[in-house]
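Sequence in, structure out. Go.
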Amino acid sequence: MSDRVLRRTGIALTVLVTLFLAMDAGGKLFAPALMIANSPPLGLPGDESFHRILGAILAFGLALYLIPRTAVLGAVVLTGYLGGAVAIHTRVGSPLLSHTLFGVYLGVILWAALWCRLPALRALIPFRKGV
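Output:
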């Protein structure tokens, strides 16, 4: 696959992940009461400041991810954030494929997008036929 196709695929996947994460961060930052009311009981504090902090962490990680020089650091921060979401959903017994693993799906897409966008990352994590 050519570098041009890989780059375009990476940009498309980045847009997809960004839409999901930006909506989540925006909801936590600007409408925390709505997020609290529409969230399943996850055992998290029900105050708005807690959800705003989560939204700020998510927005910060997303901003790092979208800046080319800090994209890998942003991917690491977002992976940690999504890992926390998976842990919480596992703890409360949320449905596995739709809720619990959704953070894993986003994480895989996030790193796949970065792999497609960055030739240096492709050199570190090569995928070859037959391997």
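Check: Residues 3-124 form one domain. The mean pLDDT is 92.
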